[in-house]
């Protein structure tokens, strides 16, 4: 399936969840915020939230600092 992640067209396997997507990108779930089609995905639902063909996904990495 094709999705847009942070503005780039990407190909994912059917059945991909947010958790699998993050794992594939080497991202730590506790350090990111994810939106699908402008809806925030709750961290506790990452492994239950399926990605669908045509979804627009935004992944924002949280950075600490001062």
What would your notes on this structure say?
The chain starts with a strand and ends in a 5-residue tail after the last strand. The chain has a single domain, classed as Ubiquitin-like (UB roll). Strands 2-1-5-3-4 form a five-stranded mixed beta sheet, with no helix packed on it. The protein has one helix and five strands. The chain is mainly beta. A hairpin with a 2-residue loop joins β1 and β2 (8-11).
- N-to-C order of helices and strands: EEHEEE
Terminal residue distance? 40 Å
Largest β-sheet summary: 5 strands, mixed
* CATH level-four homologous superfamily name: Beta-grasp domain
Coarse structural class: mainly beta
Number of helices: 1
* Text of the CATH class: Alpha Beta
What portion of residues belong to β-strands?
25-35%
**What is the domain tally?**
1
Determine the mean pLDDT. Answer: 95
- In the CATH scheme, what's the topology name? Ubiquitin-like (UB roll)
Low-confidence stretches: none
Shape: globular
Assembly state: single chain
Strand order of the largest sheet: 2-1-5-3-4
Which architecture would the CATH scheme give at its second level?
Answer: Roll
The strand count comes to 5
Helix content: 10-25%
In summary, what is this structure?
This protein is mainly beta and 66 residues long.
Note the topology.
Blueprint: E1 2-5, E2 8-11, H1 18-24, E3 32-36, E4 39-41, E5 56-61
Parallel strand pairs: 1-5
Antiparallel strand pairs: 1-2, 3-4, 3-5
